[in-house]
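Students often ask why we bother encoding 3D structure as a string. The short answer is that it lets us treat folding as translation between two languages. Here is a chain of 283 residues written in the first language.
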Amino acid sequence: MNAELLFDAKAELGEGPAWDEKTQTLYWLDILQKRIYANENLLAELDDYVACLAPTKSGNLLIGKRAALADFAPDSAQETFRAAVSDSAKTRLNDGKCDPAGRFLFGTMDLEETEPIGAFYSYDGKALKKLFDGVTISNGLTWSPDYKTFYYIDTPACEVRAYDYDLATGEIANRRRAFAVPRALGWADGMTSDREGNLWIAMWGGAQLTRWNPNSGQLLQKIPLPVLQPSCPAFGGKNCNELFITSARKGMSQAQLNQYPLSGGLFKLETDVEGLSAFEFEG
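And here it is in the second language, the structure alphabet:
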């Protein structure tokens, strides 16, 4: 498998890819540059960090900013406030996506990336509910194909956690380690899953994408990427077998940028499986 460069965006912190099946559009972000992209086009530059997003039933986007959720209209770039997140001023939102029932799940992270002062939340359009706290860098999240297991990454823990997931209520329970992620591979960052139940994880600092069997903990595949800091994969495309992968230039030295000049680019990888695409926000 070879990743194809779609857009040499030179994003400072490319993140949050989400495929909108209705419009066949990939939305994604540059968190630190406060930008929302649609495919290769700059859609908007906001007044604050934008950390995660999801397509909605209405055709708008639900976006997570530094400490709030808002509706965003792609046609007009108009924002409508939804909910405030009352974490510490030392945190910001990070990764997030919708569950199959249309709730938006997202986490926060320590701006210094060292202390477990973040938390993880669920939003159904009416109320914001904290599911757990003690998070340092809330990152990858996804579900098993039957939606009964929720997988989650707090990056510094060097593991993927599993929880029982009740789709009817949105409750999670029975936290456990699914498998450890060796530090030598890089830092586990964004994550998605395929219809076979395997997990695909971007390895920040490891210049690769990894594929795992979460039941056995077996590392199935390592796919080299031409960027040092791949950040998040998301399935999409007409047959939902294409992986779109964001990356970042944040914190890289000039020597590293010389070695990985495509860092911050958006990539596409054709796979031999169908993935779970983004679920729409219902609220």
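Translate back mentally: The domain at 4-270 is CATH 2.120.10.30 (Neuraminidase). Keep this in mind for the problem set.
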